[in-house]
C-alpha cells in the first residue's frame, strides 16, 4: 500500500511539477531526453528535480511501431559512447539483481555439464557490457579455459580490458555477435546473455543467430532476457514490442526449438515491480 501511494505521488508530481521544470529548464530537459534508452533507465545519481523532469519526459515519448527503425535506433545507442555511461549507471545491478536472482540457472548448468562426456572449453557472453558477469562466470567454471565477452561498444570493451587485465582467462572483443559467430564460432561452446541483450535483435535476426550457433556443433545457450509481462507465448507466439525504449519481447522457447535446440530449462520471474518478466532459458543441441 505504501509503495502504491509513493508511486501515485511520483506520477502526480512528474505530471505537474515535472512539466513546469521542463518548461523552465529546456536545456536540462534536452540533455535528459537526448537519447531514448538513457531516458528510460533510472539513474542512481539523479536529484529529485531531474527525476521529476524525467517522469514528465517519459510520458511524452512518441510511440514507435516500425520494428526496423526500433532495431536500428537501439543499435546506434549501444554502439556509441552513451552505452558506457549507462553501463556505469547499471553497475550495482550485478549485486542487487544478478547475484540474488540469476545465478541459480548457472548452478543448473553445472549439473548439465556434469553429465556430458565432452569438455566445453569456451564460454562466450554476447552483450558483455561492463564484464562483471563474465568475470564472475570465470570463477564459477574453473574447468573452462576461455571466456570471451562480445559487445558492440568499443569504448566499453577498452574499459573492460583495463579493468580485468589481470584475469588472463578473459577476452573482450568489440564486435557484432552475428558476425563474430559466423567468423569465429566453434563447437563445444557455451553462449550466455544476461538481462537485456537479445531483446534488441529483430526476430528474424535472432532466429538466424540461433541457427548459425546450432550449425557450429555441440553448444549450450543460457539466455536471461526480459519479456513483456503480458506476453503469452501460447496465444501470441510472435515477438512483440514492449517498454518505453521500446525493445522486443521474444518467444525464446519457440525460437530456440525452431533453430534445432532442445530446452533443458525454462522459467520466469516477475521483474521490475510486475511490469516485466525475467525469462530464463537453458538450451542445447
UniProtKB/TrEMBL annotation:
It holds the Pfam family Methyltransf_25. Keywords: Methyltransferase, Transferase. Residues 124-213 form the Methyltransferase domain. One of its GO terms (biological process) is methylation. Gene3D superfamilies: Vaccinia Virus protein VP39 (3.40.50.150). GO terms for molecular function: methyltransferase activity. This is Class I SAM-dependent methyltransferase.
Amino acid at each position: 500500500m505504501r509503495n502504491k501511494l509513493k508511486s501515485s505521488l511520483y506520477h502526480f508530481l512528474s505530471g505537474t511539477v515535472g512539466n513546469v521544470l521542463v518548461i523552465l529548464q529546456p536545456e536540462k530537459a534536452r540533455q535528459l531526453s537526448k537519447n531514448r534508452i538513457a531516458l528510460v533507465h533510472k539513474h542512481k545519481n539523479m536529484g529529485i528535480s531531474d527525476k521529476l523532469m524525467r517522469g514528465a519526459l517519459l510520458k511524452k515519448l512518441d510511440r514507435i511501431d516500425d520494428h526496423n527503425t526500433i532495431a536500428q535506433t537501439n543499435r546506434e545507442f549501444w554502439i556509441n559512447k552513451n552505452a558506457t555511461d549507462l553501463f556505469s549507471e547499471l553497475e550495482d545491478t550485478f549485486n542487487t539483481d544478478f547475484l540474488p536472482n540469476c545465478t541459480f540457472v548457472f548452478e543448473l548448468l553445472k549439473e548439465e555439464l556434469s553429465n556430458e562426456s565432452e569438455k566445453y572449453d569456451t564460454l562466450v557472453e554476447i552483450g558483455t557490457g561492463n564484464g562483471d558477469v563474465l568475470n564472475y562466470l570465470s570463477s564459477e567454471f574453473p574447468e573452462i579455459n576461455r571466456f570471451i565477452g562480445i559487445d558492440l561498444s568499443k569504448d566499453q570493451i577498452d574499459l573492460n580490458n583495463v579493468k580485468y587485465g589481470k584475469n588472463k582467462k578473459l577476452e573482450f572483443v568489440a564486435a557484432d555477435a552475428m558476425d563474430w559467430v559466423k567468423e569465429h564460432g566453434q563447437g563445444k561452446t557455451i553462449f550466455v546473455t544476461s538481462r537485456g541483450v537479445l531483446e534488441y535483435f529483430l526476430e528474424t535476426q535472432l532466429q538466424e543467430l540461433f541457427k548459425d550457433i546450432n550449425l557450429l556443433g555441440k553448444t549450450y545457450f543460457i539466455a536471461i532476457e526480459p519479456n513483456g509481462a503480458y506476453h503469452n507465448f501460447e496465444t501470441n507466439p510472435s515477438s512483440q514490442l514492449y517498454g518505453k525504449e521500446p525493445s522486443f519481447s521474444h518467444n525464446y522457447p519457440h525460437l530456440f526449438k525452431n533453430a534445432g535446440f532442445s530446452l533443458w530449462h525454462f522459467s520466469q520471474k516477475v521483474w521490475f515491480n510486475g511490469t516485466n518478466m525475467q525469462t530464463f532459458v537453458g538450451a542445447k543441441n
